[in-house]
Amino acid sequence: MIDLAETTPPGPFARLGAQPIALTAAVLLLLIAGVTSIAIWRAYTGTAPESDRVVASRQLQARTAQASEQLVEKTRGLEVTQQESIDQLQVVQDQLQTMRRLLAAQQADTKRLSEQVTTLNESIDNLRQSFASARAADAETPSVTSRKPARHRVQASARKRGKSRS
């Protein structure tokens, strides 16, 4: 028959594998020594990372709360500013609406006055034409010289005499 022999040469790990209790005990002793040295080091230096972490986390929470309060205050300030801007915009819009109404009324008055001026110009033109046609009619008809009454003639001759005597 065939004899199954180990073909791998025995190494240092193979020998340790045969004694797992001794290996576990050695690792356990190393761990205990490490934890003990850390505890001694903390006691000697007086600092504990856990308390530092707690203090740091509390400071971080305080800063976060402060930043949140500042954001809330700034948000309220922005809300107030926004409301003031809205109010000012409303006032400007009201003023613009009033100005539009006034402009429309002024334009209506200007149109009415323009129409009145046009009507007056037409009336003046009609009067001029009427006056011109009346003059033309007077010029076409022979002019009759009217004689002054005798009383006026006598007074006029007396005035001429009075002037010549002086």
Describe the overall structure:
There is one protein chain. This protein has 166 residues and is mainly α. It is 84% helix and 0% strand. It has four helices and no strands.
List the helices and strands and how they pair.
Layout: H1 12-17, H2 20-45, H3 49-140, H4 150-165
Concise summary:
The chain is built from 4 helices and no strands.
Proportion in helices: over 70%
Instruction: Give the averaged pLDDT, no decimals.
Output: 82
The ordered string of helix (H) and strand (E) elements is HHHH
Strand content: under 5%
- Determine the structural class based on helices, strands and strand pairing: mainly alpha
Largest sheet: none
The count of DSSP E runs of length 2 or more, i.e. the number of strands, is 0
- Assembly type of the chains comes to single chain
Distance from first to last alpha carbon: 195 Å
Radius of gyration using CA atoms only: 63 Å
Unreliable parts:
none
Based on CA inertia axes, which overall geometry fits? rod-shaped
Number of helices: 4
Task: Name some characteristics of this structure.
166 residues, mainly alpha, 84% helix, rod-shaped
